[in-house]
Amino acid sequence: KGKSILYICFIYHASGLDRGFKGQISAFSSVISTVNQKKEATENRSSPTHLAFPNIKNVKKKQRIAMTFFGLFVQIPLEDVEKAKSSGDWKTVYDFYLTTFDSFPELSAAFKKDASASFNTIEDSGINAKFVNAVYDALLNTPQDIQKTNPQFNNTSTYVIYAHLLRQTASLVEADHHFLAHWFKKLSQKRFKPLVERLLQFISLRLFPAKPEEFPPISKCSWWIPSASKVLALLNTANNLVHPPLIPYTDFYNSTLDHIDLMEEYHTWQSFGNSHRFSFCQYPFVISIAAKKIIIQRDSEQQMISIARQSLVDKVSRRQRPDMNMLFLNMKVRRTHLVSDSLDELTRKRADLKKKLKVTFVGEAGLDMGGLTKEWFLLLIRQIFHPDYGMFTYHKDSYCHWFSSFKCDNYSEFRLVGILMGLAVYNSITLDIRFPPCCYKKLLSPPIVPSDQNTPVGICSVTTDDLCQIMPELAHGLSELLSYEGNVEEDFYSTFQVFQEEFGIIKSYNLKPGGDKIPVTNQNRKGNCSFTFFDHHFSSFLMQLLRPEEVEILVCGSPELDMHALQRSTQYDGYAKTDLTIRYFWDVVLGFPLDLQKKLLHFTTGSDRVPVGGMADLNFKISKNETSTNWLPVAHTCFNQLCLPPYKSKKDLKQKLIIGISNSEGFGLE
Fold this sequence. Notes:
Number of helices: 28
Radius of gyration: 33 Å
Shape: globular
Mean pLDDT: 77
Structural class: alpha/beta
């Protein structure tokens, strides 16, 4: 059919050889006028002197350049080239090139290690990668008129050719895509990253062309972007097959998509799924986390309005008086029974979970304008994750929380944590929690959100690499056990039983029935290294669009701090940014080491992480505190507000600020 998978796979590097060959020969020695004249040339093979070799002796320099170029292209025996150069009889060289460029299979075979060998393994494509790279690098140095016809270059004049190449690749059967993904993963980062960048640029320029006249009408090339997205998906799959990945997952983000109608894309995806109707949401790896947050926020707002409207209609249809409280998820809790009250309220009001959250503390006057909601999250998370509560343990080596076996049978409270995480994302609240990445990987497994609330999630395979994120010492020990070449039973003298300290008491657990009596041997040691993560029913609003890393950022924020950005976006109440106290403050803060900067952020906002939108999304405010300068700074974490007395010297401000942010455990509630 003239389409070999081998050709399509490596045409990314070698595409344009056909046209490049024509142009190069024409430019250097006029060996062949055009490939379109192959038939006429074939008829004249008996008289090679009739070919375009005028004044060969006068163009020796050009021939040497041409032969250097040819030598990179196809593995023709060098002795044939030397003979042709010395005798002037180029028929052998001519026949070789004419045959090679006459068909896709022949062209592909020129780049194979063995022209007769098969390429039916994912580990070996059968391609001479060094030769392909040499050809590609040679193409980069060809004249512009050659590059114009090569779809591997960024010139928009090549995009029509490039688009057809992408469509051919995208239309391959699934089995061929499987081969491609595994072959692409073997590319070096130097070769892999430009492929991704070129595809992203292709999509961006098709969406927002600088010169629309350079492209066909969108009605005639509506398949361009879908084809490019499918090929990007192959590269993304290849990237995920390698550990560590060839490039960061964020390198697949296309910031151009931040400027399109994301909600239209999302609604198209909701309506048609992954059917024939294209949506960028089918390829969420190209959508930035900032854009995904916008989709989630707008979808949340629309659902809140829709559900509130439906509640109002239901009330009116039953001829009942409407109540404004029916428009919200109203949480009434006692501070003294925070966890139990919250669990009861969320259980009773499951149907209202997608309404706007509103919190009231029993016995306290106050209207929740967002501050009480944030305080409820802060207090509840602080209590649930406290070691004395027994639900989670904190591992200092990995700086993260993990599930305690003490309450491993209390599914309702673990479900509460899942609901809190979903509500936090739904209501744009950043939580001060630390789970390892494998937790979010399990949270998104299976990758499709179940419609049945009782369907368990978190069912996915894990390895010692995942365990290393939580308990690195234990993971190291298990890895040594697995790789030990001696007699495991005699040297380790271990059984399928583990010991764990809980509240000062050492408890034993069997990893399998009768595990305390089963010795670990070379034959069964893999069973000893299988460990179970949580299988609890985490109810969540987290979406299929997200990667585990992105879920973590949405829930907990980013650890990357930019204090200069915070300075630029800070608002002032009672101060001006030019006031001496404010200048002292920023001089001190910008000079802080990272740990003190994190303490300041935690002191003022309740978390040392930054929301998806960056520091500007914190709405950080510094207010003047008209008190004695002997007082320490005060923070209202519910409003991201720092109350700063008018300290008279930088030294005094620095001293008081460090004391305040370093001794801020607990909540000072009036």
